[in-house]
Every structure is written in structure tokens, then in C-alpha cells.
């Protein structure tokens, strides 16, 4: 559809473009009914009035996109290359191998989806091919503390060759390595892949740290550079049966990290960064359900038991029960519960009835729970018997299969954010570059909880698989719960579970916690003959809508949805293209998507459960390619000040100063008039972060010429757009007594008085003539968060307080002061009248006192504000004006 000149044309894929400029918006669509699978649709352009499209719904959701609000830089998207993934790919004919790897890792221009993140297991996983001794780890030889028999040579058969083929297609793939279990001889249960934890002895930690680093070094020698290492896959997962796993508590992870860090520092693999945790955002729904069930089974029967005992045995005030006819619950040694009709006759105390550890035993040694058998409470007693049996059975089953969730629920084994926060708060916290997460419990907001406390650390989603779900359910759900929620909560990468599997979701282990329905991103049938036999699953298309469109340096940018039925996330590529991924979360109705992206407006109708990627180029196209890339200049953070009336204007397209500069301005331009010039009443303070664009920084300076602005228009010196096109939207500065205001010679009496200029949007126009077009083509340098130094993202700012001039100089009522003949400063007298604050304008010492009083006023009003040093003005006219 199109809004053109303010009119909607239903039934077409068109754009709102109220200006003369034309914007082509590319559209790629996947529908839940699989009629469109990652298919390029007709672009959205104004001349397509009456063109073909999808009929719109009355349900409308608006997505606002702002490429100037930038957040984390994305690293990419991918999956885990388990041994089974490499195996099924390697067994396919060569033509099929080439086809599937090109499709997965090749660039969009060649028909690929550009995956660039791979998780590599260190040793055996639930998706391995061989579980025999010698294939479970890289050193299955018992008690080889020196790792003299460590080898990764088995991976040379098919695993490493597949990785090397991937690197030939995409040399920029990053790898995350994770162990599922330590070698058995380093575990407390040396007979089981699926249980136990690391031996609690220093030698075990030393050997395991060496083991992990040896793996990194061996793989580096094969040309595979591991970017990240996690110390344990799902450290809270134990009791896995045949599935490999190992408990690793936060304390153990801290200890192991310290040893790994020391070992890495002297390793050729020192570039590898550590990621903490590598487990769920929180407890899974199933685990939470079991926790509540067990707790209820534990608590409720005890209340019922007390009530029934009191009712049935009130005559037995001595606390002993006479002959009790009871239904019997026989607890087998294997945790199984048998309900029997046999009756026991015995003398049993009430205390024994309630104490699980003192239950009577039958002749076979099984524990028996005796329940009240009198007719008055037989029904209730049976409930107690069954409930108690369920409790004992559930407790034993849960403890065996999920050994961490009950302690975790009671605060003894932290899960979700609590685990990484405990690790990061420890003495080993600095060893970690970030946190790895899985999607199987909790939600993505857990990452923000950690990021809020450690904003410098990276967040990565290293595993996820939503099963069992149909294609139509999987596609929108994975977008909303994983990709969009994940990226909005600081994830720099998102990875699914297995990259490839056969038609039986294998090869894999079976039983226990092994997953028999965890499909790969692509299914490679065991009898595959040609590329047409491959089946690309919902995971493939979910990834493709993000991975195919981002390049190195792409950033997550601001997006917000108004209305229902749509979820979305947006990115800005390094070449200034904007990418928006949107999904219709409804399963049976269309939703009209309206996009407003800083002047680029269009509408599109999304079918139920569908996902669409929109891509368009930013209007900002500087003359120098360097201005489309982040600069290498340092970020400088400092305060600037503006003398203002009670009206508020941002520090864009106006002049500001350091504290000395604003005090000079007040002294020389404002306070000698009554009322004050421009009705100025206050000093506003802004906290500014500035990063010079690369072109200017390479000239050896951070700041350019300080331009003057009149009514928002840059008036020079010189032609401002020419220099902004050359250097980007740089901040300018000058010492007030130097060029271009060298006439203000007495400003030297305010030490280092400095003025600044920060170009905003439409800097070549008076603010009264600003419109959407100039915002697009002349965006200015202001952005949000930490500036990147790209040509249109050189500075950000936030209000940092204000002080009233009357309070500073000691005037209670300004109007009354003037009415009674008062003057703040009289130039002819070099003093004030009925006020001494501004006396002696050329006295440097007194000027310093005035500045100090202003700073003290801010300090008193905002005692918790940062203490920031003035930034030095390094503008060099000769360098700036050189070719």
C-alpha cells in the first residue's frame, strides 16, 4: 500500500513519500504457510500505485525507527556445529556439501544467508556420533594429569574438514567453544557421562584448565581461531542419563576461570575471551511446575495429617496410636512407589508417622507410610498416602534428574542472572568478557539485568531450540521470544542448537535428557543424493531474516511498536543502510505495518505468522567513505554550559561554552543590560560525549572550526556544508580570544574560556524552514548513547542540571532590584550598582572566584554529579584548512 500525498491506496505495496526524493525499500518475506520462503518481493517505490500486493487489514501497528539511537554492535547469527552436523554434511555427495555450506555461510548476493557464528563443542555432546571410550573427550586415559595423551586427531576425520570448508566460504566466521563434560577421570562420578561434577582438588582444576587451553591451541594450529570459550555447557544441568553433562557451581566456575586465565596469558590462544554461565535465562516452565508440585506435595499432606490425626485419635492424648489399619505405600530402593492393600498392625507414634526418616519398614526393607484407617477419615487418609508417596517419588526423581533446580529454588544453586552475577562479582570477574545464555527457561530480560550492572560486558545467546513446534508456530515465536527480545536485551549474537541433522534428528544419544525431536537448521537426509533433497527448517528462515542483511559493524538501533500484532527489531549497517525485521504475531489475521523512520515512511501488510525484512539506504551519503565507519578517535566526555532564558533549546545548532566561557559571555554580553539580554535567567549544564570523525582525527585534531549559528543556521566562517561533507559533523571549538573571535581580546582574563559548536540537523537552514527532507539529507552529528565517530554520529548529550542567575549573584527579586535602580554591572564604572558580584571585569583572580562560585552552586545542587575535567580545544586552523 501507499500513502502518497496523504491518501491511502489499498491493495498495493507502496510508500509514503511527501517530498520529491525517492527511496527504494527492499522487502524479503517468509510466510507461515510456506508459500513464500525468504522470497524477495516487489520493492516499495512511489511509482507502484496500483501494483500488486497483499490486501491490508484494519488492524494497524506503527513501528518507529530511529537510526540515530544506536546500541550494541552485532557480531552475528548461527548455530552449533555438533559432531552430528559435520557428520551428515560430510557423508553427503560433494555437490550437496558445497550447496548446503554456500547456502548457510555464503553472502546474500550469492544466495546465501551469511551465517557467521558457530558454536563448537569440546568433546562429546548429545548430538555426537560415537560415545565409546576414546571418543568422549580428547583425553580418555585415566588420570593422565600431564595430558601426555591429549589429542584432537579424531576430529580430522570429518569435523575439522567441514569447518575449514566453511572458513573458505566465509573467513569472518567467529567460533564459540563449549565443553559438555570434563574427561570422566576428572569427575566425581567417573563412570557416567551424564552426572557428577569436577573433582574438588586443585590438581583437577589445573589439569582441566590445561585441557581446555590445549584444545584452543590445537584448533588454532588447524587454522581455527576460537573467539570465545565457555567453561561448561549448562552448568546447572545434571542427572542427564546418557546425555553428557556436568554440574559446575558458580564457586567452581570462578576457581576454574582463574586457572584458565593464567594459562591463557602465556598461550598462543591468548586472544580467546571467556564467557560466563552458558545456561538458561531462568528456570524453565517445566522445572518451575515441578518445583511447585514438590513443594505443595511436601506441605499440604502435613496439614491434612495433623487434622486427621487430631480428629481420629483424640482419645490418644499420650501421643501413641493403637492398632492402625493402613493402606501401605511401599517405596522401592529405585524410587518407585507401589500402592498395596496390605494392612500393617503395629504400634506407631504420631512423631514417627510425621517423620520421613523414621518410617517403619516391612520385611523386605521397604519403607512404609502408615495412614489413619478409621472409617471417619479413610478417604482423606488415602489422599495423604498418595500425596506422601508422590512427594517421596517426586523428590527422589527430581533430585536424580534435576539436581540443581530444587537447590536453586531454595537459593542454594543460582540460576538465571544470579549465577553470572555471582561469578562476575567474584575475584575472577575480570577474567570474563561477557555472559552466554540459553533460551530454555526464563526470558531475555535476564540479560538486561546483568547488562545494567556490567554494561561493558558482552551478552551472547549461544543455544536455543523451540521444540516441538510446527513451522507456522516456530517462525513468529522464535522471532519474538529469541531474536527480537534477545537483541533488545543486549545480545550481540544469537545461535540455534544443531546446524544440521538427519531425518531422525540424529545422529544423537537416546534416552535420558537426549532430545529426539531437536531438528537442525537444515535436514540432510541419510539418503541425500542432490541439493534438492535438503530440507531447510523454520530455524533457517528465522536466522536468514537477520543474518543475510547485516554486515560487520552493524548496530542494533532504536525501534518501538505502537499497536498490537507486530513485533520488530532494527539495525543500521556500516554502510548506513537501515534494516527492519518485523513479524506478525497473530496466527489467523493480517496486520498492517506502518513504518516511520525519520522521514522514511511506508506501509506493508503482513500475513499471519509471517516475517519480513525491509532494507533501505540512509539519506546521509557523505563524500568520504571513512565517514560511514566508526572512527578510532577517543571518546571525550565533558560539561558544556549555556546561558538561557526560561525557554529551552538543545545545544544543537547553537553555541555553548565551558564554565569560563559562559561566565565571560554573561559578563560581556548579558548582565550590563537591564533586563538582561534575551531575558536570560539561568545557566544550563549538559554532559557531552564527543568522538571526532576519522577524517578530522587523521589531521591530528579532535575539534574543527567553531561555527556561529543564527536562528539555527550555520553562518560560518566559510560555507559550513562544504566542511561537514569533507569532515563529517564535527564539533568546533575556539578559545574566545582566538580565531574566529580574536576581537574579544579581554576574554583572556577568563582563563581558558572556550566556546563550542555542535551541528544539528538542517544546519544550513533557519529553524523556521526545517522539514523532513533536510533532516534526512543534513542529519547533523547528534546521536544517542556513545557516539561512534561516524560522520552523522559524533556527539551525544544529556541535561546535567541548571542554576538560577539570581541565586548565583545574590538577587532575591530581579524586577524589584531593577526598579530600585540596581544594575548587575555598569561598563563605565566596571562595577555593579547595589551589587558587587560582577565588579572588576578584567581582574583574572576575581573572575576565577566568580567561576568557582558557579561551580560550587552546581555542586551544592547536584552533589552526586560527575566531576568532569574541561576538555582542551585542539583546533588547528592550518591543519583544518589543508587539502
Secondary-structure content class = alpha/beta
CATH topology of the largest domain: the name is: TIM Barrel
CATH class of the largest domain, named Alpha Beta
The count of DSSP E runs of length 2 or more, i.e. the number of strands, is 38
The number of distinct helices, counting runs of at least 4 residues, comes to: 21
Strand arrangement, largest sheet? 3-27-26-6-23-24-25-28-4-5
Shape: elongated
Radius of gyration, rounded?
A: 35 Å
Descriptive terms for the model:
Immunoglobulin-like; disordered N terminus; 883 residues; TIM Barrel; 4 domains; 21 helices; single chain; alpha/beta; eight-stranded parallel β-barrel; ten-stranded mixed beta sheet; elongated
Please render the helix and strand layout as text.
Blueprint: E1 2-4, E2 7-9, E3 15-16, E4 25-30, E5 39-44, E6 60-73, E7 76-80, H1 83-90, H2 94-105, E8 117-122, H3 159-169, E9 174-179, H4 202-221, E10 226-230, H5 250-265, E11 273-280, H6 285-312, E12 320-321, E13 328-331, E14 337-340, E15 348-349, H7 350-354, E16 367-369, H8 378-401, H9 405-409, H10 418-424, E17 432-438, H11 445-453, E18 458-463, H12 471-488, E19 491-498, E20 500-501, E21 522-523, E22 535-536, H13 538-547, E23 555-562, E24 566-572, E25 577-584, E26 591-597, E27 600-606, E28 611-617, E29 635-644, E30 655-657, H14 659-670, E31 682-691, H15 694-697, E32 708-710, E33 713-716, H16 720-727, E34 732-735, E35 754-757, H17 772-777, E36 795-804, H18 805-809, H19 814-819, E37 823-826, E38 831-833, H20 844-861, H21 877-881
Parallel strand pairs: 6-26, 7-8, 7-19, 8-9, 9-10, 10-11, 11-17, 17-18, 18-19, 20-21
Antiparallel strand pairs: 1-2, 3-27, 4-5, 4-28, 6-23, 12-15, 13-14, 13-16, 21-22, 23-24, 24-25, 25-28, 26-27, 29-31, 30-35, 31-36, 32-33, 34-35, 37-38
